[in-house]
Design a protein that fits this description.
Blueprint lengths: L1 H12 L3 H17 L3 H13 L8 H16 L3 H13 L6 H17 L3 H18 L3 H5 L2 H11 L1 H9 L6 H7 L2
Helix pairs in contact: 1-2, 2-3, 2-4, 3-4, 4-5, 4-6, 5-6, 6-7, 6-10, 7-10
Amino acid sequence: LDLFDKAIALARETKLLFLERIWTLNRANVWREDGRLDEALSAYRWVMQTEDPRAPDNATFLAPKSIGIVYRKTGKARQALSMLEPLAKRAGAAPLRIQWEIFMELASAYEAAGRREEAERSYRRTLEILEEQRNTGILESSRTGSFAYHLSRFDPYERFINELTADPSDAKRIQEAYH
């Protein structure tokens, strides 16, 4: 965290707001994973408040996605959806690496809210983005190692399978849909 603080201070000193926003977002992600959710939410909100609408960057999409993750993880599915649904509507403007993450988090929030059909649609959209781009654009728009990390860390395939198999009474519907 000390290195994040130094990077943020340097970005602030050199008046490079876009770097300050990205480093603040990354530090907030560490806080989120460490359970320091109030600090993470505060940082994510600051990133959103400092957005330049004339020059959107990755943080434009990552901050609300991250707020949605915090809300979902704390049992606030409706609030997560309030962040993620509008974000999904403009996801096409995000880099491919971020597009599939938006839909995966939206699917997880729908699942947490008990909205299984919408969760399934969003998981399908996640996988469509990944499959359409598997051998093309996604590898060009993301470092391969970074892409592999995100894919294995947040495994949308496993999440979708878990959602599909959560209710054993759905077995016939699943079998019909995939055969």
